[in-house]
Amino acid sequence: MNTHELLCTQFKYPFPTLKNPYADELQEITETQWIDGEYRWLYEHNPELRKKYKKTKTAHIAAQWFPTASAERFKPICRLMLWTLYNDDLYEESESDDIDYIHAQSIGILNGEINAEQSVIPLGAMLASLRAELLQFIPQESIFRFTQMISRYFNGLKAELKYKKNKVFPTISECIALREDSICLYPFLQLTEVETGIVLPPKIHEHPVIRRLQALACRLVTFFNEVQSVVKDEATGSIYYNIVKVIQHERQISLEEACLEDLRLHNEDLKEFITLQASLPDFGIWQDAVVNWVHYMSMVLSGWKNISTKLDRYNGIEFPSAAELRDKLTKV
User: Fold this and answer.
1) What is the DSSP secondary-structure string of 125-190?
2) pLDDT of the residue at 311
3) Contact (Cβ atoms closer than 8 angstroms) between residue 129 and residue 79
4) Cβ atoms < 10 Å from Cβ of 256
5) How far is CA 41 from CA 26, 131, 132, in A?
């Protein structure tokens, strides 16, 4: 079956698709100052791997998610986008104990409890730079909520590693839950405050409708991503936490049927998202800001489809090798 055609024609979003005008400027910074600069040591002698990261166009992905951020406010978001890629590729084949340490160190740096020099994790300095940049625009309270979402991502990553190591499939519901966290969208959703300049009070972030909308956004991106990456995951042995493969295993159906079931689940969640967005509770003086935040959340969905269906990383074999990165780290 043609998964790319399925994604383009059947996964539909009734939301605007905008793009940040500073995408090219930040992609240039990503490639020259970060990939070939600050973080070049990760793959100093592997120009092909650096080229693969550049082809992923992380700033252009971020540009679809944060279309109205100024260049200054857009920069930490782009750094986070590159970090998520690095972290995924560095640790997708690690042992759980290793991830526990990376997890604790990463959160410590982001919360300001330890500095990059005190940490020995490869991406420590990157996280320290991210924290410093974010603090220019949002308070420590928002940073703390952001790091809680980074923690969710690590917990999801650890669950994935467990299933992959044991070569055991989770149930469909278990897989959806772990992928909701490991897709690493929750942290980005918190950074809408960086883009808009409006810091919402904790009671709004804790509201069950807002929490549900965020969960639905993460699930929707995941359902899309699973169809998109199923061929890649089959090639890399990552089938144990791909929802499509889990559906195929549990239901004993064809890959095409599993993709269509993934689409059905996606459409159910999309319907709920649209319904909640259209009937938000009354948030008083914060109403316009909340409506705007949910609007930005919806553009993540249409934006992800728009950019990811055009990227080699997700539509071919142009993705970095975790084995190459792991070998590099063992020599540091």
Assistant:
1) HHHHHHHHHHTTTS-HHHHHHHHHHHHHHHHHHHHHHHHHHHT-PPPHHHHHHHHHHHT--HHHHH
2) 72
3) yes
4) 14
5) 21, 21, 22
Residue 93's pLDDT is: 76
120-154 pLDDT tens trace: 899 999 999 999 999 999 999 999 999 999 999 99
Question: Are the CB atoms for 65 and 305 separated by under 8 Å?
Answer: no
Rounded Cα–Cα distance for residues 198 and 139 (Å): 11
Give the model's pLDDT for residue 110: 98
- Taking CA atoms, 130 is separated from 77, 219, 263, 265, in Å, by 8, 26, 35, 35
What is the dihedral sign for C-alpha 277, 283, 287, 289?
negative
How far apart, in whole angstroms, are the C-alpha atoms of residue 219 and residue 126? 28
Helix pair 208-236, 255-278: axis angle to 10 deg: 160
> For 68, which DSSP code?
T
Structure pTM?
0.93
- Could you tell me which residues come within 8 angstroms of residue 307 by beta carbon, excluding any fewer than 6 positions away? 57, 60, 61, 63, 64
Judge contact between 240 and 168, C-beta under 8 A. Answer: yes
DSSP class of 5? H
Length of the chain: 332
Q: Sort residue 37 into left (φ over 0), alpha (ψ -120 to 50) or beta.
A: alpha
pLDDT given for residue 332 in this prediction: 40
User: In the prediction, which pLDDT does 323 show?
Assistant: 53
Name the fold adopted by 3-10+20-330. Answer: Farnesyl Diphosphate Synthase (1.10.600)
Domain regions of the chain by residue span: 3-10+20-330
Q: For each successive 10 residues of the chain (332 residues), what is the average pLDDT?
A: 92 96 98 96 90 94 97 98 93 82 96 92 96 98 98 96 95 98 98 97 97 98 96 90 98 98 98 98 98 97 91 54 49 42
Q: Tokens 């804790």 belong to which residue?
A: 206
DSSP string across 222-258: HHHHHHHHHHHHHHHT-GGG-HHHHHHHHHT--HHHH
